[in-house]
Structures are given as C-alpha cells and as structure tokens.
Amino acid sequence: ARVPVARLRDPATGVCADLSVQNTLPVVRSQLFKEYSSIDSRVRPLVMLVKAWAQARGINSSPLGTLSSFGYSILVLHFLQHLKILPVL
Which residues pair with 7 in a beta bridge? Predict the structure, then answer.
C-alpha cells in the first residue's frame, strides 16, 4: 500500500483486514465490486476462489512481482465482461 496501513487479524476467525485513514479509493473499489456482485451472484464466489488459488500458490504479492489480490479481482471482472456475463460499468 502507498498509504499508511494498520494490518489487523481476528485471532478467533483468522480474518485479516487493512485499516487506512483518508484513503477513498478502496471505498470506491468496494462499491464497484458490490455493484458487480449485485448484477450476478457468481462474481463474489469466483473472485474469492481465484484469490484463494493465487494465495495458495504464493503468487498474490505485488512487491514480489506478481499480481496483487486486487489485480486478480480485476482480472476476474474482465474475464466475466469478456464473456458478456457482466456489463462494463
């Protein structure tokens, strides 16, 4: 991240989250994914599957020269747009 981020992890569930202040881009990105997910219920599971696949193979770290988690998410959206499953918003 290019902005200061606090990384949090819930010990009970293992869920991780990044917390930043005065950075609106992630909010816009979340709204975009929410909109696409409302158009087709397969979007979220497919994005989660691809992100988990990339993480399991250690290929989801932009500092290490691979796509970021967001990059894989955008890749899935593009794939679904190419198949005419999703519109271009």
Answer: 18
H/E stretch holding 8: strand 6-9
Q: In one letter, which amino acid is 64?
A: L
70 Cβ neighbours under 8 A, 6+ residues apart: 29
Give, to the nearest 10 degrees, the angle between helix 43-56 and helix 69-82.
130
For 80, the token pair is 């679904």
Q: Per DSSP, what are the bridge partners of residue 25?
A: none
User: Residue for token digits 């010990």?
Assistant: 11
Residue range 37-67, pLDDT digits in tens: 999 999 999 999 999 999 999 999 888 899 9
**pTM over the 0.85 mark:** no
